[in-house]
Amino acid sequence: MKKDLLFIILFLPISIFSQKTTILKGTVKDKNKSVIENVSVEYGSKGAVTDKNGNYSIRIPYKKEITLKFSHISYKTVFHKITAKSRNSIRYSPTLVLKTESLQEVILKDNKKAASGITKIDVEKAKNIIGANAGVENILMTLPGVNNNNELSTQYNVRGGNFDENLVYVNGIEVYRPFLIRSGQQEGLSFINSNMVQNIDFSAGGFQAKYGDKLSSVLDITYKKPTETATTINASLLGGSLTFESPFLKDKLTLITSLRYRDNSLFVNSKQIETNFRPKFTDLQSYITFKVNNQLSINYLSNFSLNNYNYQPISRRTRFGTVANPLELIVFYEGKEENNYLTLFNALSADISVNENLSFTGTVSSYNTQEEEYYDIAASYNLGEVDANIGSENFGEVDFSQGIGSQLNHARNDLDALINNIQLRGTYKKNRQQLNFGIKYQNEDIRERIREWEVIDSLGFSVRPPNHISNNQPYESFEGPITPFQNIRKENNVSINRVSGFVQFNERLFMGDSEFWYNIGIRAHNWSVKSGSESSKSQTTISPRIQASIKPNWHNDMLFRFAAGWYSQPPSYRELKDFNGNINVDVKAQKSIHLVAGMDYSFDLWGRPFKLTSELYYKNLNDINAYSIDNVRIRYRADNLTTGFAHGIDLRLNGEFVPGSESWVSLGYLKTEENIENRGDISRPTDQRLKFAILFQDYVPNLPNLKAYLNLVYNTGVPGGAPAYADVYQFQERLRDYKRADLGISYVFTDANKQYKTGWLSNFKELTAGLELFNMFDIQNSITNTWVRDVYSKNQFGIPNFMTGRVLNFKIRIKIN
Fold first, then answer.
1. By three-state DSSP, how is residue 339 classified?
2. How far apart are CA 299 and CA 296, in angstroms?
3. Is 125 helix (H, G, I), strand (E, B) or coil?
4. Which residue of 375, 476, 680, 801 has the lowest C-beta tally within 10 Å?
């Protein structure tokens, strides 16, 4: 009796409940008939979850309508009304649809670099920009404050500085330019290979203490670590490149290597000098990284460069002057020039991560350049007046010679420079604070042999050098020996030891709702020079620097920044050597006080993003080592007897003038002057008053794969220089304004945004082809003057050396996996 009572108490409620409910079963799948796990099935307070096979089971009321809810984080929720009309189990298997949630566009901005006065440059633009020397340096020429009147050179001036005042880093390692290069057409290839670049940062002044000891600018390049295997081929009438990149060993090892070849014959043949020109510019670069573990990575960067420059001028015909008084210079040449430049560079570095806050980078690098400059060139010239009388039978021909003469130039110059250094840099981060520090030792061993002379003859009489007894031929006979106008015979063995270091502190703060950054740093540099048996005293410079930026919480997106610092540039070998090849071991560091104030204003125009960047700057220059520029060769006075200044304003507006393509317009004003030995202010050789540039990208709306690139630059003229050994205060005339427009048109068959799975184009990850038209308006730009001397008239004529004319080039780019 007791057992029966227990049975009734336990099972009667279940029996009654089962009579009022029904079991609902089913399998939940997606549109592809794949089962879905962890789908929540519920009604009221009851619920169940699908298993790994997508099955569920739940009891529902009998003869009562309910609403089932099937929900999953990745699928749209399904509601289903159902009524159980039978006490037997029933089935319902819904199909869920993936949900795609539409989120409003979120724009994340990293203002850290803008706050530091750093301009970040798009790598793809650096690859695609049109120009005689396409690449990273070419895109710099479109920025305000950056100037160069020589399209065959990758060197540039920044805010009144010269080529030697710019810092260039690749992966934190400083790189150098050749010593004996005289002209842009001898330079060949830049060290920076745009096919290997991942990141480009540029500062035109007021830069941080972590960068080195130069007066003008910093170009900071980072080479990439490949994430996929690819081969890229670039080819044109000017040369080509082959780049291979790939990860290995499950991405622990990465390799990118690039072989380049360059031939500037196409440009040189467009000039007014008839030549036999056979240049061969070749280099091979590799960057290898190996991740040992999460705390240690080893990197290796190497470069081999060989430039053979063979130049045999034949004749030159240059017309200049005014419409009313046209002049013509005709030169006939004999002889040739053979230059060789071999460069070897190796750097090994290790990145060590101690913990999430502290990291170190140690680097050992070696740079060796072996340069030969051999030439014997005889030039016979005739400078004459051109008949400008339209009705004359001899219209356009030379009818009177103002100067007739010749000159013979000879050189057997050799240079071997070895620069070794070792450095350690560290970074400590905690919250919004960061401490950077580093120390570096460098030894420079330069050995140069100079054998260079020039003999000048006018009307059959030798022109004697300056500071010699003058001859008054043909009116008075002169029986002295024939002395070269210029004669340098030197053997220079120079050793420079340097120790430098820095410490800087960065912090990001919030002042109310406004963001604030500041950076305080200091550099120290000690060096000593030994030349032969002569040694200098040890010299030390201290360079304090500060930056501050604020981004107010305004409706308008604006950022304000200020930078100040005392910058020093200890002398390099070039700065120790004067016009005659003598070494002054006691040359002091050039000094410059920088004051920079800038603003960034981001806004929308025509529904597209734009940004206006403006900077005011002032430089107070002391202990200047005055110099002259001949093409790209800088010749220093090797003293510190000059003071000067530079000030100006830079403006840049960049944005999507055409939807989807960023372009920009740059405008800069500069004034820089110097005072040599208190004789008064005169324009410095880089006094380029006005700069205007446009980098414009466009495409055909109905054919978006057809793209166009326009690179337009206008620079006012710089001082034209002075003849050798002449007083620069007497030669302050300027060269003509520099005006150039380069146009490129390319068709994109396939790229990252347009891939094919079938057909012949499926073999390519990228394929583009196009035409480039350099100097499309065929404007005659001059870079320097050739000075023609005449004994009879006692005058020296400045004949402009014109740059390249209009040139058409074809190029193709291929990238395959």
1. strand
2. 10
3. helix
4. 476
